[in-house]
User: Fold this.
Amino acid sequence: MLETVTSPLGRFQYQRVELKRVAAFLSSHKTLFTVLWIAAFASVFLWQRNVVGGGLPVFWSGPVKPMPKLRPVAFNLTDFGGVGDGVTLNTEAFERAVSAISKLGKRGGGQLNVPPGKWLTAPFNLTSHMTLFLAEDAVILGIQDEKYWPLMPPLPSYGYGREHPGPRYGSLIHGQNLKDVVITGHNGTVNGQGQKWWKKYRQKLLNHTRGPLVEIMWSSDILISNITLRDSPFWTLHPYDCKNVTIRNVTILAPVFEAPNTDGIDPDSCEDMVIEDCYISVGDDGIAIKSGWDQYGIKYGKPSTNILIRNVVVRSMVSAGVSIGSEMSGGVSNVNVENILVWSSRRAVRIKTAPGRGGYVRSINYRNITFDNVRVGIVIKTDYNEHPDEGYDPKALPILKDISFTGIHGQGVRVPVRIHGSEEIPVKNVTFRDMSVGLTYKKKHIFQCAFVEGRVIGTIFPAPCDNLDRYDEQGRLVKRSASQNLTDIDYDF
Assistant:
């Protein structure tokens, strides 16, 4: 059950006493010297802990945060035989704990506390009305041998395992058809130990698509907060066809190179979702909003809508900080991305699609976006031609419209804007306002456009492409574009 650990210093009560009482208590010089030496010793190490942040030596246990009780009933993983030595396999302990909590739904559910330690496990499922709480210095480790990872059918809106046809590996932490699930803690860690997965993928030794680290499907009322997710075999956090999801104060890490497809957060056919106050540095897209792939996504028909992304710091050396698509065949709408810093990345914000996707991307608002050392700031790409199979309809053309960029600033950018629409897929009603981006290249065509229609309000830097109408700050038309079909795309830089 819940354990409360008392600080070794908790028994000392510091009170003001008269000098005579102190002298009487410390009747010998030896006792006085001993007490003063202990106090000084403790003070030095407490000071080192606060200033250096490296913690105390191993012989000093220090105060440990008690685990809060967030449910009427709470268990520790050790109650079910868990051993946190990094070697013992704890799958059965997790399964027994989840089974016990599954019986408590009418009482408000249960909480599973994962204490400090390294808890090796194969994939396991969550249950409704459950809180998974990771203590500080608790690490859930995913076993690296794929024979322990169950196979699942491909996602119905993808019709394909994404990397291979047929089934795919499940996620380390998984849930389906759930309600009221919380994954939180004192910044404990879920570590997928993806290094062997990445190597086998590059060597083409896997027969099935790698599994995500955390995947919640067909569920509602989900909160994920105050944890670290790292080194996923594949996508890191994948909410699929979920409603009312909050992801807050989450750190997501993977190597920025040689960690293929380790997207940070991929909302997929999700509705009513908030992602805020997160730090993400991974080997693919930091955040990628999706809604199904080609004919399978069109048939499934579940959009991603009403999504707020704010107060996020993100890095992606391979792909983009915040993406929409390319799998967006169910549609993406009503997305607000605000107060975002993208640093040391290949691209900052990107929308990607292709003929065959169908669907739409509309009502997308970017506000207060900062670029710091990125190759391309804003990208809209309409020829991202990856398809699950030959059954897609090349005449299923996506619709891109009603996209605004306000308060776009930064430095160290090669190409601030590249909007590559096409005759088949024009980009309509794009708005730029309050933009000033410092450049590393001084070439002429640094604001690149093709088949795009929209407007610039006020003065922006660098100068916009000629495809866009110009308005003053009061919204009065200054200059009408001669043509929205002008093509000025230069992929050489």
Remarks:
- DSSP finds five helices and 28 strands in the chain.
